[in-house]
Amino acid sequence: MKKHAIIPIFVSHEGCPFDCTFCNQKKITAHSAPLDDNEIKNTIEEWLSTLTKMNLETIEIAFFGGSFTGIPLRKQCEFLQVAKTYKDKGLVQKLHISTRPDYINDKILTNLKKYGVDVIELGVQSFDDEVLELAGRGYKHDIVYGACELIKSYGFELGIQLMIGLPGDSLEKCIYSAKETVKINPDVARLYPLVVIKDTKLYYDYLSNAFKPIELEESILRTKEMYKLLGGAGINIIRVGLKSSDIIKEDGDIAVGTFHPAFRQLVEGDIAYDIIINELEEKINAMSNNLVDVEVFSNNQSISNAVGNASRNKNRLSKAYPMINFYFKIDNSLNKNEYAVNITEI
Ligand code: SF4
Fold this sequence. Notes:
Layout: E1 4-10, H1 25-31, H2 37-51, E2 58-64, H3 73-88, E3 94-99, H4 106-114, E4 119-125, H5 129-134, H6 142-153, E5 157-164, H7 171-184, E6 188-193, E7 195-197, H8 201-207, H9 216-232, E8 236-240, H10 244-247, E9 254-257, H11 263-285, E10 292-298, H12 303-307, H13 312-320, E11 325-330, E12 340-345
Parallel strand pairs: 1-2, 2-3, 3-4, 4-5, 5-6, 6-8, 10-11
Antiparallel strand pairs: 7-9, 10-12
Bound molecules: iron/sulfur cluster.
Iron/sulfur cluster (SF4) binds near residues 20 and 66.
């Protein structure tokens, strides 16, 4: 049963002075009417008409897209006032905004506090200055630490978003970004493998062969290593992989990149695969006979990760060990994401 739901309000950033290479905000703002109070109210009402029947513990209104604290303060106040009305009435429990690390200061945070904002997510994207520069982000990584500290000192919940596969990025840089995030210890994190959206600078770089996105397998590998570091540190990873509705208004806007509708499962499945294969190899090495049946156990929440998306793990195991029969079974005495292997010689 779902306990938590988010009502997403998309705030495009009109007049954003930056030109991040992966961002299509300018296209969106050029082709859509500016957001207004009525639209926010209608969106919230529409979502609430369904969500209030679902017996949820928390409903959150989240202003996504663009950089919320970069829009004029008067507009921020107008938008927040609409959302606050629903929080004051107890119809929603949390307010959430996302913004850039360099759009955080005392004045901004005091105002967000006044309107009852609970969660601030920063689109950090990378802790590597070369990656940030090539992405046109307009700040260096050192600004992130102060922004995060200030957000925490005001008592907000902190979120950090990281991207995987931007130009100049690498596995090592992704791991570094994850380690720096662990040091900051945010409440939540999101991992977004890069997708190249039409009408962005990256799209034109891709068309002219100036940029080649990483392959899906590389993207899964990098994300997996980051996931293990963040998850191992107890950081709640609330999203892995982009949901098309997060930033993309029309179908067909994704041109290229590592978009996969079940990206999180691919990553979690690969983590499961590593655990299973380690345990399996240890046990098989201790055996004399190669002809075996193998039972792979997981609890009912993790069985799909054990088998893998579209039987990815099952197929890989069968390919790596063609003489072995694999059986995936549920054992609810195991914890979530815990896997056990039992071998029977035949
Ligand atoms: S990602 Fe944010 S800061 Fe960068 S261009 Fe888009 S709206 Fe502006």
